[in-house]
User: What shape does this take?
Amino acid sequence: MPAPTRTLERPPGVQEPGGPATGGRGPGGSGGGEQTAVPATTPARIAVWLLVGAITALFAAFTSTYLVRRGEADWRVGPLPPVLWLTTAIILASSIALRQARRHGQRAAMTGLRTWLVVTTLLGLAFLAGQLLAWRQLVATGIYLATNPHSAFFYLLTGAHGVHLAGGIGALLYAVRRAPAAATASAALDVTDPVATYWHFLTGLWVYLFVILYAI
Assistant: This one.
């Protein structure tokens, strides 16, 4: 009687050479076959994180000096312009709009991407206009850069933040022009994501400064 022939079975999870991946944590897979896009590490993404680190160090130095200086006997906190509450709401809304832009970019919906990038840019301009109005309100009440230490720090912190935010608006204008013209969703995000990282950082930085100026 001939011996039974044994066949070699491939262990589960081992794919056939040249065949598609059906499980496990392979590139673009998490066990269910659904691919997850991983953002590429581009020079722009690296550069924006280096810039964020440098700005963080700068404002850490400013605010540490602020906290030390406020302990002096001549420290007087003056009234702050009420318009700052409005500008805070505006910059938070701009970050929400930018998140909407990125969602459209992920779906390669270039019209929506462009629309929300324009909305973010307009909100950024409105924020800057509100900050200038806050300065004018202070000047109208006789509070200048040299009036007292607190006013000097107010102008310094809001002015430095405004300069960096103006740079962010320039980056948004670049994204408005380049991102919707990208051939793929991935290429659009390569333009949008570094700008979004920088802008969200500036939003968080302003909230931090707002708390410092109002509560401390």
Q: What stands out?
A: The chain has five helices and no strands. The longest helix spans residues 110-140. The chain has one domain: 43-72+81-215. The radius of gyration is 26 Å.
